[in-house]
Prior knowledge:
Layout: E1 4-11, H1 15-26, E2 31-34, E3 52-53, H2 56-63, E4 75-77, E5 79-84, E6 87-92, E7 101-103, H3 106-119, E8 123-125, E9 129-134, E10 139-143, E11 148-156, H4 163-167, E12 172-174, E13 179-184, E14 195-200, E15 203-209, E16 215-221, H5 223-231, H6 233-241, H7 245-249, E17 261-264, E18 268-270, E19 274-275, E20 278-280, E21 286-287, H8 295-311, H9 315-342, H10 351-357
Parallel strand pairs: 1-2, 1-11, 2-8, 5-14, 11-20
Antiparallel strand pairs: 3-7, 4-7, 5-6, 9-10, 10-11, 12-18, 13-16, 13-17, 14-15, 15-16, 18-21, 19-20
Helix pairs in contact: 1-3, 1-8, 8-9
The site of flavin-adenine dinucleotide (FAD) has 39 residues, from helix 1, strand 3, strand 13 and helix 8.
Amino acid sequence: MRNRFFDVVILGAGPAGMLAAICLARAGKKVALLDRPAGQNKSLEYTKVGESVPAAINVFLQKLNLNLVDATIHRPIPGSDSLWAGEQLQQDSIQHSQGMGWRLDRIEFEKDLLRQAIQSGAELLPALLHNSHHDGTRWQLKIDTNECIESEFTVDASGRTAVLARKSGSMRIKGPPLVALWAVGQPAETYTAQTLTESQANGWWYGAHLPDGRPLAIFHTSARYAAELSHQPEKWWKQFSSTYLLQKKINSQTLHNAELKINEARTTSLQQPYGDYWAACGDAALSFDPLSSQGIFNALASAHMLSQAILNPDRQAAMQGYSEQLGKIADIYQLRRLQYYQRAYEFHGHEFWKEQLAGAHR
Ligand SMILES: Cc1cc2nc3c(=O)[nH]c(=O)nc-3n(C[C@H](O)[C@H](O)[C@H](O)COP(=O)(O)OP(=O)(O)OC[C@H]3O[C@@H](n4cnc5c(N)ncnc54)[C@H](O)[C@@H]3O)c2cc1C
């Protein structure tokens, strides 16, 4: 039996993979979108972390005729409230030229993207990539249903695992270690629409209420301290209870005994986000410190840029242009990130802050 052939196989059905699938399928390419099947740890039922997006996302999606940020599902963010190195700062979204950002219902947002990808003609293959090699003409991709599929081009949109980029030997540049420990609590009577951030000696907190009213609290800290906290959730909760701003706006009892989850959150980038017949987008190519709230927007924007490069008749030159664009985004982001960490001068003597400030990349 002959293997099935696709013009483009996309590894990963996160925001980046799904947007790339939409753009390429709309342009007439035969596209397969590969991701884990439902019930296998990660699926659309799996709760992903990351939900605050800038106002620019709406303009970007509307230009692609995608009206995915519906105010009946997602909630506008009127501003932020931060306690950073003892200084309390409130920012109103009205000061931003593009208006309010959005707190997404991440599951609904991704379901909508998947629907659009399938409507555009992409085929969802509910499987993981097992093995891959390029035989000089085509990619031979072995998936974990024991099938093999073939493609002319493969997009790595597998998030921070960057599964194909790693296999292809592309060097991954890593920023200072940063680990996020997070929990989603029970809905309470209080609801804060603002984004909350607060620095402490050994890390910083992010807090928000999700569109369905559940509180989310994330502590970003060093790998060493994260390992300690992950074994003692009670300690994480006590650390939360010691915040000033977050614990005023989010009732700490709503988070007590909530399941603690852990994610890698450091900045990473590929030295070369493309190679022969493959390229990466989204977190696989460039992942941000969550302080930036830029991950989802960048996933979508980079997927769009990459699709245009794949469709360009002079693909080699377009790929070089794509790589340069990502480099510029990374430079601007690094500068802003550093400025933010530098502002926490009160804690600069502490190990966590020293590590974050010591060199943007490693
Ligand atoms: C703690 C934390 C908080 C964050 N907060 C925010 C925020 O507020 N705002 C924001 O914009 N961003 C935030 N982010 C970042 C944001 O979640 C990511 O940038 C975004 O999910 C990137 O999208 P992606 O499509 O590139 O990757 P992902 O969403 O990670 O999707 C990758 C997909 O690839 C699949 N995959 C992996 N391996 C394989 C394989 N071998 N075969 C097939 N499929 C595979 C995975 O199952 C997954 O579905 C946060 C991140 C963290 C860690």
